[in-house]
Specification:
Blueprint (H helix, E strand, L loop, with lengths): L3 H9 L7 E4 L18 E4 L3 E4 L22 E7 L2 H9 L5 E5 L2 E3 L4 E2 L14 H7 L3 E4 L11 E2 L14 E3 L3 E6 L2 E7 L5 H6 L5 E2 L10
Parallel strand pairs: 1-2, 1-5, 5-8, 6-9, 8-10, 12-13
Antiparallel strand pairs: 2-3, 3-4, 6-7, 10-11, 11-12
Length: about 220
């Protein structure tokens, strides 16, 4: 199965030349480290930067240069900085081509739950509500199961929902899936992972047609 970097590396293949991309907190922030060198991509962070680069090398961090998750980042030549109003104007105006988010649960209908676990302290939904409400292309980066080994790909989300019918693709440590006819459709499997193993830990309805290829990283 893939680790977090493996998930990010696979998602990086979905990033096309000329894209404006928003990276959510968690695994999505790693995607910037794996984008091909021969394409031009502008990474946007909702705290007010367009032109994020990969994470800085150890010892080269700038504490004043951070992403929305308060991680230190780098800025590419030509990067621009602005306030939150401008940042969310970009998001709400649908000027972002691809949004990559982490999730605690995804339903077979394309619903996403990624901001609150009842009974635990949270700072709030943040920019997730704007991203899921405005983006046309949302890829979720997540582990296939929780720490108890239970599926996070469900018939219906049990946690508070962030967005309804908005997810277009999911990349987990076990598989690549999309949403078709209110079901998960298996597109690829992680190296060394069988279709039967994926079926066993996918609670939602799963469509498997033909032979499922292995991911190419």
């Amino acid at each position: 199965m893939l680790d977090k970097n493996g998930i990010a590396k696979r998602i990086a293949k979905e990033v096309k030349d000329g894209y404006y991309v928003n990276l959510g907190i968690g695994i999505p922030t790693l995607v910037a480290n794996f984008v091909r060198d021969d394409i031009e991509v502008e990474f946007q962070s909702e705290n007010g930067i367009l032109g994020m680069g990969p994470f800085p090398l150890e010892g080269e961090e700038d504490a004043d240069l951070i992403n929305a998750g308060k991680q230190t980042i780098t800025a590419l030549p030509g990067a621009s900085f602005f306030d939150s109003a401008m940042s969310f104007g970009m998001i709400r105006g649908q000027h972002v081509d691809l949004t990559i988010l982490g999730a605690m649960e995804v339903s077979q209908h394309g619903d996403i739950a990624n901001w609150k676990i009842p009974g635990k302290m949270v700072k709030g939904m943040g920019g997730a509500m704007d991203l899921v409400g405005s983006a046309k292309n949302i890829i979720v980066a997540m582990m296939h199961t929780n720490k108890a080994g239970q599926s996070k790909l469900l018939k219906n989300c049990a946690l508070p929902i962030t967005g309804v019918k908005c997810v277009t693709k999911i990349v987990t440590n076990m598989a690549v899936l999309d949403i078709v006819n209110n079901s998960f459709r298996l597109l690829e499997r992680a190296p060394g992972v069988s279709v039967e193993e994926i079926k066993k830990v996918t609670q939602g309805d799963l469509i498997v047609k033909g032979e499922t290829p292995e991911m190419k990283l």
